[in-house]
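re: ur msg from earlier - yeah i can do the magnesium ion complex, just paste it... oh wait u already did. ok heres what im feeding in:
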Amino acid sequence: MTPNIRAAVFDIDGTLALMNKEAGTFTALPGAIDALAACRAAGVKVVAYTNGTFFPPAHYYPLLADAGIVIDEGHILTPAAVAAQALARMGYTRIMVMGGDGTRVPVQDAGIQVVDPTPDAGPVDAVLLGYTRDFGATELESVVQAVWDGATPFAGSVAPYFASSKGRMLGISGAIAAALENATDTKVTVFGKPETAGLDIVTALTGAQPSEMAVIGDDPKLEIRMGRKAGAFCVGVTTGIADTAKFMGFPEEERAHAVLDDLTGFAAQPWFPKVPA
Ligand SMILES: [Mg+2]
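and the outut:
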């Protein structure tokens, strides 16, 4: 079966680029720049979707452009940006956000009023959890009270931890989500990978259905799981956290359709759309 690929959804870290954690800059991974150029030449729309929630999407455009990776305005997604756009489409207008600028800015950009987690915040429709180190018991009590009062709880990501140059770092929003669920007996709805909400936003951006997307990533549990769940064509690259054996170790129905050493020759693959003559 040859997929009809109309949009390509690339992970950023370990797929398109590597971040220099000290300098905060990116370096393009082999073949990444050519792969994006080939997508454009073939009429395949490009979206970059990171699972990081530290920064708002606007943070990434100039840093990636400095590495030669130019992404169209509005085509970089983070879990918080996916959450914000999904919540706007669901009709939420006033949301208590427990998170830093990486979460607050996309919610504001989606036209939703951001309410701080304070005891006198007043009624809110929803609570959204994101990465922050700037909180105490008062903030935690305020989001719990909001859910007790009927607000629906959401989070960008509930990963227990993530990799950094210093080793494992605690996933704060996952810890807060566990506390919130413990206190309220209410399940927190998650938008980040491997949930498929991000691909709904890609459809809204590009017009491509998930079956017309290639999802490319270095993490079999995040990008590949998300893509397979949605019915996309899934491509693993071994420039990040997993090698070929790890990708191939998943059951057939959860496995990447193709695994590449890196993005070199991406457009030469048999499943890549032919450039119209
Ligand atoms: Mg990655």
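cool cool. The mean pLDDT is 94. ping me if u need the other ligands too
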